[in-house]
Structure formats: structure tokens, C-alpha cells
Protein: Peptidase C1A papain C-terminal domain-containing protein
Organism: Elliptochloris bilobata
Amino acid sequence: MNFFGWRSCCALLLAVLCAAPLAAGKAFGDSHHFALSVQRAKADPRGAFAEWAAHFGRGYAAGSDEFEARLGVWLHTLRHVLAAPLADAMVPVNGFADLGDDEFRAAYLGQVTPEDDEGNVALGGTVGKRKAEKYRYEHVQPPAAVDWRPKEIIGPVKDQHVNGSACGCCWAFATIGTAECMVAMATGKVLSLSEQQLIDCDRGPPLYDLGCDGGNFEGGILYISENGIDLESDYPYLAKDSVCRRASGKKKEGRRAAALDGFGDIPRANETALMQAVSQHPSTVAVCCGPFIEAWRNYTGGIFDIAGATVPGGCTRPLDHALVAVGYGTTAQGQGFWVLKNSWGAHWGDRGFMYVPRNTGGKGACGLAAAPGYAIKKGVNAEGDALIDAATWSKPDPSAALTMSRAERLSLGSARAAITPAL
Ligand SMILES: *[C@@H]1O[C@H](CO)[C@@H](O)[C@H](O)[C@H]1NC(C)=O
Ligand SMILES: *[C@@H]1O[C@H](CO)[C@@H](O)[C@H](O)[C@H]1NC(C)=O
Ligand SMILES: *[C@@H]1O[C@H](CO)[C@@H](O)[C@H](O)[C@H]1NC(C)=O
């Protein structure tokens, strides 16, 4: 896991970042995947599956119904690989190969981005009394390449799907991923902050945010701006909806670890504007996994250049997943790419990160330029950052019941969707 140490690095962060283009082999090679021998898998698929399952701690008993069912899905996922004439090849396989597309979609996505009939995003602007700030980087000259990963500001790669629990809360992970970077840039401390607080507490009208049923990072960032956010260790991730254990409002009790100061929209369908923002700090993007869910699911590195998925209009809606853009650059072969941080664990992609084509025009590859935004942090907030008072804090109770039924929460969501275009 890439949990970087604490370090005061504001001066460094203010310096213009300018990196040489990445050498493709070096940048895209590393992984925590399972290396599958294609020859072995062809000769003994059950044995190869059992090894893969052991590698990822699945614990399926050999010969059980579950083993057989998962083996079937796994072989289906790998069908392209097993059908190819690659006698001796070793191919990387991540830990999602035994999940079906629908199962994966329910557990791993969850961005809710309201759109009108033309696919124009209807967020941005006002959420209750909250307002998105006007874009602040229009005069920035973005450098040719930026990568925030070596700068010791990015929090740990996390996994929104733990212990077999389905939670469509990518929006909370994208929010927290961005918040962790902004807090580290302002305070020099890389903290791991609480997604579960957003899942439990950032709910109902006028927000979109519906815990494990989906949400929007704009609402999440605005929630943190109003309420602060706790440490992951104080308010740990449960991968399910639970009761909010935080009173709202900045002055309420709790071990509030960090604060933000608002949300900014990035001009849409404008990758230059996205470069400007990402050159200043990591930013959030909503993407479309849509019909390309299998390619997302089994991604193990390299530029995600799936035919159809990355051309503007190929898959730009609905925007159903959210990630953090932590860099961009150009390969030695001249292909532009974005670097995105995902919330699907470190075994997925390149240690949890992915590379997506850049400068494809329109709404960008996978729609990533359709509705990007960023968190605003004006500096260290004496009231909000690291205001940790252990005496007033009680640990969440993981066994607590839901406050609202799923149907109630979904109907709140559609009420919100119906009013948004008028905002
Ligand atoms: C993209 O945004 C920048 C400012 O951030 C602006 O100067 C430029 O004109 C925009 N491009 C388009 C095509 O709108
Ligand atoms: C997952 O399971 C492990 C082992 O039982 C447990 O320690 C951990 O707290 C669980 N995590 C969640 C989020 O439920
Ligand atoms: C992943 O999915 C893509 C698109 O469906 C396919 O071409 C590729 O072979 C798959 N890779 C693996 C390892 O299953």
C-alpha cells in the first residue's frame, strides 16, 4: 500500500511540476496481480483457478457449488485470454476475475451524475445554500506532465468492496481521496479519512448522496466543507449503510480530523482546463464504465485504450463511477494519458491506479471531462484540521441498523434528480 509518511511539503508543492514524458515500459509495468500461466490454465483450469482463488484469499472449498459457480465466471472473464494462441504467456489477472458484471457494478460503482436528455450534466451550481466556486485556474499554464504520486500527498489506495459486502459508494472514496490530498498539501500530514462518515451522514435532500446506493462527489466535498471529516481509524469503513454518528455543523463534538472550504467546477469537455486544475492539485472526475464494465473490471495496467470505450461519445453516459485524477503525461510513443486513482484495491490496475487516454476531444475518454471538479482548501483551518478530542468521541457501532430503508433513500434520490435541472 502506498501510505506515504507525513512531511511538510508546501514549498515543494507550490513549485511548478514538470516531468519528462514517461517511458511506457517503466511506468506501466508494476502490479500486485496474480500472474497466470496461460498454458497451465488451458491444461488445468480448475487447478489454475484454485491457485488464483488462494492468492486472493477466496476460501472456496474445492468442489463446492460456490467453487464451481465462481470457476464458471472466472473462465468466462478469461475467455479472450484462454482462446488466444499464447502457449507460454504469463498474463496478469487481478482479484475481480470471478465476479459477474452485474455483481461488480453493484459493488464497485456508485457515482450518480444527473443529466438532461442530451447528456449534459445538471450538477454544479447550487446545492441547497451551498455554491460551487467559479473555476479559479483559467490563467494557469499547465506543464506538459504532472504526477502527484511521488509528492507524498496521496492517501492510501483503498477498496470499497471488503469482506464480500456490496457498496456502491465510489463517490465517497473519490471525495475522500481528493480531501486527503488537499489536507496533506495544506497541513503536510497524509491522513486516512473516513468514507463511512460520508456514507452515513451525507444523506437526503438537498444532496444526492445515498450511501451504498450511490452519490456524487460534489455533495461529498460540500458536506466536508460544512461538517469536517473524521479519521478512517475513528470512523472505520463498514462497506454498508449505517447510522450517522456525527452531529452536523462545524462546532459539534467529535474527533474532527480535517476540513475543506468548498467545491469548484472545472469547465466541461475541456481537457486543457482539467490539466490546469490537476497541475495545481488532484481533482475528481466522474467516468462512464457503462457497457465496458468487463474491461474496467479486469484492467491490470497500461493505457486503458479499449476500442469504443475511450472515444468521445463511445461511453460518456451515464457517468457511473468516480475517481481522483492525480496526474497526466505523454508516453515515449506520444500518447497522452491521465493518471487516475481508483478505490478498487491495490491488486487492481497499476497498484490501484489507472492510465486513460488524454486529449481525445469532446467529453474525454470514458467521459472523464464531462463533469470534473475539485475541493477547495484555503490553508490550515485551526478549528477544522486535526481538532481531535478523544474524550468526546465514541466509536461507531458496526451492528447498528439503518436509519432509512433503501426504498426511502432511492425515492429521495429521484426527488433530487427531478429538481436538479432547474437549479
Ligand atoms: C478551456 O478552458 C480554458 C480556461 O480554463 C479556456 O481558456 C479555453 O478557451 C477553453 N477551451 C474551450 C474549447 O472552451
Ligand atoms: C473484514 O473482516 C476482517 C476479518 O474478519 C475484520 O477484521 C474486518 O474488520 C472486516 N472489515 C469490515 C469493513 O467489515
Ligand atoms: C479483459 O477484458 C477485455 C475486454 O472485454 C478483453 O479484451 C481482455 O482479454 C480481458 N482480459 C482478461 C485478462 O480477462
The two ends are 41 Å apart (CA to CA). Residues 10-27+113-422 form a domain with the Cathepsin B; Chain A fold (CATH 3.90.70.10). The chain has a mean pLDDT of 77. Residues 138, 267, 270, 272-273, 276 surround 2-acetamido-2-deoxy-beta-D-glucopyranose (ligand 1) (CB under 6 Å).
